[in-house]
Design brief:
The structure is a single chain. The chain is of the alpha+beta class and 194 residues long. The protein has two domains: 3-97; 99-179, hypothetical protein PF0899 fold (2-Layer Sandwich). 71% of the residues lie in helices and 11% in strands. The chain has seven helices and four strands; from the N terminus they run H-H-H-E-H-H-E-E-E-H-H. The protein has helices spanning 3-62, 67-95, 99-113, 125-130, 135-142, 174-180, 182-193, and strands at 117-123, 146-150, 161-165, 168-172. It has a four-stranded mixed β-sheet. A hairpin with a 2-residue loop joins strand 3 (161-165) and strand 4 (168-172). The relative contact order is 0.12.
Length: 194
């Protein structure tokens, strides 16, 4: 084995170790974000429930006959507000990730949503200007039955990306992903805070 081969092998080993460390850090950051979002949701829930209880007491003083139905609606409304606040807190946390964590999350998201064949990954204009080197290469290294290339033009989106396979567009913006999974997210958040 020549000296050049050993150098290349060392670079490859160091690169693989670095990629694993970045992935582990991204996973830890995502877990921290989820825990932070849950803490925010519990506080929001507590504040909203407290306010709802005050409203319910006022209604009770006005009309004993109607209090049962009104209180149930107020509590349900408070719970819906708390869940929506938790979802928005999670969205904000995703949007405010550091660049390393953000692009590591995008890499995982791209691998999970990629299709067979060659696709085009369209980042936002802002993300296109700050994309780290090796970003597409790391994604393609994980893909088994296809590949993606980075679009030269930025898409008119805030964050995340759009994967394009011919006439098929897969919207992987954070807002689209949250909206797509909103009911599932609501069920999970309700399980945590109620």
């Amino acid at each position: 084995m020549s000296g050049l081969d050993r150098i290349i092998e060392k670079i490859n080993a160091d690169s693989l170790a670095s990629c694993r460390e970045i992935a582990d850090q991204a996973q830890k950051k995502a877990q921290d974000i989820a825990e932070d979002a849950n803490a925010h949701a519990e506080k929001a829930y507590s504040d909203i429930i407290s306010d709802a209880e005050k409203k319910a007491q006022s209604i009770l003083n006005m009309s004993e006959a109607n209090i049962s139905g009104i209180a149930r609606r107020a509590e349900l409304s408070a719970k819906v507000e708390a869940v929506d606040a938790a979802i928005e807190a999670a969205y904000d946390a995703m949007c405010n990730m550091g660049a390393d964590d953000y692009f590591a999350a995008l890499e995982k998201l791209a691998v999970r949503n990629a299709c067979k064949g060659e696709g085009e990954l369209r980042l936002s204009k802002a993300d296109l200007d700050r994309v780290p080197s090796g970003f597409i290469e790391r994604i393609n290294a994980e893909l088994k039955d296809g590949s993606v290339k980075l679009a030269a033009q930025g898409a008119d989106i805030e964050n995340g990306f759009i994967l394009v396979y011919g006439d098929i567009e897969i919207n992987c913006t954070f807002r689209a992903l949250i909206n797509e999974q909103k009911d599932t997210i609501r069920e999970k958040v309700c399980g945590v805070i109620f």
